[in-house]
Structures are given as structure tokens and as C-alpha cells.
Design a protein that fits this description.
Strand order of the largest sheet: 3-6-7-8-9
Shape: globular
Radius of gyration: 18 Å
Largest sheet: 5 strands, mixed
Number of helices: 5
Bound molecules: cytidine-5'-triphosphate
Length: 197
């Protein structure tokens, strides 16, 4: 399939951290093979379109949306019901079409009392500036920027190192296990939620 190396660990760590703080948590999980937490409700899906459908359904009841999913930006434009035979085909060109941006769509319909946190998977120089642009363009309260070009952190790793950006400024959280990063992200979000920041 077309995807990326994301394991879902950051999202699951955020969910566990929020449950620790007493939140009622629902996780939309796409192709995640990690142990489940009894305190959490899971909606299992497998494609970007299914993630979008599930998020749209659940969003109205949510106080906080933490969008850690590495959603595919493109999908095959065509699918075939049967098998594609190889005879007479020296190559098989694959045309991809853009998927919808789920966070942008939800940002457009958000209520003022909802808190939206996005992630920004960035590569190299200018990562923070591009993260800030995502904060504005997706109408988020905070964006968690991580540099996916760094080995050992981010995609399919147990550790992460991030900068949490909001309209007031930014907070760097040094390399740590994703459970620790999740707590720091939730610390940054809690004041927004209670209206004190
Ligand atoms: N996101 C989303 N729907 C998509 C793609 C991304 O909701 N189809 C969300 C991600 O979950 C993340 C945020 O948007 O919270 C930013 O995702 P990222 O991959 O960093 O950036 P993109 O907006 O996809 O832009 P680009 O890949 O060009 O950097």
C-alpha cells in the first residue's frame, strides 16, 4: 500500500496522557499495531477517506482534537475491482490524486470553545516557520513541529523532539520518549482549554 513509516505511537501516547488526566478519549486509529488501552475507545479505519469520515462524525462532541495522524496526502486515482494482469504491460504507471486535508476542513467548522492541535512533520531548515504557517492556515490553537529528517526521532521511533508553537510563542521540548513528549504537549494545551492563556 502507499503510506509512510508512522507507527501511531505519538497519537497513542497523547491518548494515554489525556486519559491519565481524566479525559474521555476516542482514538481514530488507521493501521496501528500497538497495544490498546482499556480506558480508551477506538475507531479503527484504514484509509485517509475513512479517517476523514470518522473525524467529521466525532468532531462535534469533542472539546479537544489532537491530530497526530500522518495522513497520506495522495491516493491512487483509480482502483480496480479485480486483479491487474501483467501480460502486455511492461510498466504500470500509477496516478495519484490529492486527499482532502482533514484538519483544514475541521478548522473551518470549529466552534470557539473547541481546542485544535495539529502536528507539522517538517524537513530541515525553516521547519518552525512552516509550522507557524500551518498554525495560521489550519486555524489551530497549537502546532507541534517535529523535524522528520532527524534520525531516531519522529516517524516509527520511540522518541521525539518537538517545538510546540501557539500564537503567543513557542516551547522546545528536548528529545524524550513519546510518553514524556505527550505530557508536555498536553501541558501546553491545558491552559488554552481553561481559557487562562
Ligand atoms: N493532516 C490532515 N489531513 C491530511 C494531511 C495532514 O488532517 N490530508 C494534518 C496532520 O494530521 C497534521 C497536519 O495536518 O496534524 C499537518 O500535516 P503535515 O503532513 O505536517 O503537513 P501537510 O498539511 O500535509 O502539508 P505538507 O505535507 O505539504 O507539509
Amino acid at each position: 500500500y502507499i503510506g509512510n513509516r508512522s507507527s501511531g505511537r505519538m497519537g497513542f501516547a497523547l491518548a494515554a496522557g489525556a486519559a491519565d488526566r481524566g479525559a474521555r478519549v476516542t482514538v481514530v486509529a488507521a493501521n496501528v499495531e500497538l497495544p490498546r488501552d482499556r480506558r480508551i475507545q477506538y475507531v479503527d479505519v484504514s484509509t485517509a477517506a475513512e479517517v476523514e469520515r470518522a473525524c467529521r462524525e466525532l468532531f462535534g462532541d469533542a472539546d479537544v482534537l489532537l491530530m497526530a495522524a500522518a495522513v497520506a496526502d495522495f491516493r491512487p486515482a483509480q482502483s480496480h475491482a479485480g486483479k491487474i494482469k501483467k501480460d502486455g504491460r511492461p510498466t504500470l504507471p500509477l496516478r495519484l490524486e490529492a486527499t482532502g486535508d482533514i484538519l483544514t476542513a475541521l478548522g473551518e467548522q470549529r466552534r470557539p470553545d473547541q481546542v485544535l492541535v495539529g502536528f507539522a512533520a517538517e524537513h530541515g531548515d525553516g521547519a518552525l516557520e512552516r509550522g507557524r504557517r500551518k498554525l495560521r492556515e489550519k486555524r489551530l490553537d497549537a502546532v507541534v513541529v517535529n523535524d522528520v529528517s532527524e534520525p531516531g526521532i519522529g516517524f516509527d521511533a520511540s522518541d521525539n523532539e518537538v517545538v510546540v508553537v501557539n500564537v503567543d510563542g513557542e516551547r522546545h521540548i528536548g528529545r524524550a520518549p513519546k510518553s514524556v513528549i505527550a505530557q508536555a504537549v498536553l501541558d501546553a494545551v491545558t491552559p488554552v482549554r481553561s481559557g487562562s492563556s
